[in-house]
Amino acid sequence: MRNTLHSMPKVELHTHIDCSLDFKTASLLQPGMSFAEYKEAFVGPEKCKDLVQFLQCIDPALALMQTRLALQVSVDGLIRQLAADNVLYAEIRFAPHLHTQNGLRPEEVVETVLAQMFESSEREGIYCRLILCTLRDFNKEQSYEVTDLVARYQTQGVVALDLAADEANFPLDEHIAAFRRANTLGLNTIAHAGEARGADSVLETLENLGVSRIGHGVRSVEDPRVLERVVKEGIHLEVCPTCNIQTDIFPELKDHSLVQLKQAGVKFSLNTDARATTGVSLTEEYERVAHTFDWTEQDLLTSSRMALDASFAPDDVKQSIQEKLEVFEAASVE
Ligand SMILES: [Zn+2]
After folding, report:
1. Domain spanning 2-333: CATH superfamily
2. What broad class of enzyme is this (predicted)?
């Protein structure tokens, strides 16, 4: 099944640009680096103490990603990896304000990333869209700024506002107003929740942020009422299994809540989250899930279909990807 899983057309909704500098990309940004040095700086330990330790592993990449050229190289590297995974449609994400240390304005950061995203994805023959993140530790003004960037670039490839970073130590309070503004403006919204904190975090996100998707949300299973609400409201969970093991949400993959989510009828997709920091490709993610839970090709195709349904792709793109998934499915049952 390994070859099949590699060639299987995929849809990925949750992958961070700054967590995805592979060795080739990082070597372009820091020439002369050995693979051992790369692993030391850019790949996190197999088990982090918690999400906070995991987030610290991104600092070396962020330190490099402060110029237009570095942003271009980073985006190009990620799209190369997506193509190698046979991803047909992806939504990639990052926080523009983390790339302004050398004087770039957030608008310049977004425009640089968008231009490179379209150039590289056209070359690779895949579709890509961009999600902009505000961060838990940002203040109200910064969150408003990110919302305004999403509004400003929504016709140019930006499709949603996301809330990311340290869920356990920073409350939602500073971000509620920005998400209200986004909802009022009709923008798509997503938030990371139910990862470093439990089902209560999912609940407060649903009550306050008006999201259609949740990054992770895998701890919804800790409260049957929250799980029921996720199902009832058709909230899509962007599940990133290997990363959840690394941040110690679950001890091992066999302990992951994915099976419970599937049984409960939750809509979800499989994603890498952090291709470099976690050290995983989407094909490997599929392989691990298939192996651990005895999932079939059909199960994995269903997850790509659910991803496509929950994506913010234009209808014609959705249609085109849907047809490619069908062609693959028809060929694999023959
Ligand atoms: Zn994430």
Report:
1. Metal-dependent hydrolases (3.20.20.140)
2. hydrolase
What is the rounded distance in angstroms from the CA atom of residue 135 to the CA atom of residue 169?
12
The domain segmentation of the chain, as residue ranges, is 2-333
Q: Which ranges constitute the DSSP H helices of the chain? A: 2-7, 23-29, 35-42, 51-56, 59-64, 68-84, 106-124, 140-152, 176-184, 199-209, 224-232, 241-246, 258-264, 282-293, 297-310, 315-333
Amino acid 44 reads G
- What percent of the chain clears pLDDT 90, i.e. is strictly above it? 87
* 333 or 122, higher pLDDT: 122
- Contact yes or no for 95/134 (Cβ under 8 A): yes
Ligand 1 centroid–CA 164 distance in Å is 6
- What's the 16 CA to ligand 1 centre distance in angstroms? 6
- Residue 68 is encoded by which pair of tokens? 């237009």
pLDDT in tens, 94-137: 999 999 999 999 999 999 999 999 999 999 999 999 999 999 99
The 10 Å Cβ neighbour count of residue 59 is: 10
Task: Tell me how far apart the alpha carbons of residues 189 and 208 are, in angstroms, rounded to a whole number.
Answer: 11
Structure-token pair, residue 297: 């090709």
327 alpha carbon to ligand 1 midpoint, in Å?
Answer: 31
| Sign of the C-alpha dihedral computed for residues 112, 116, 119 and 122 taken in this order | negative
Quick one: tokens of 91?
């939504």
Query: 78 alpha carbon to ligand 1 midpoint, in Å?
Result: 15
Task: Provide the 3-class DSSP secondary structure of residue 313.
Answer: coil
Q: What is the pLDDT of residues 253-281, one digit of tens each?
A: 999 999 999 999 999 999 999 999 999 99
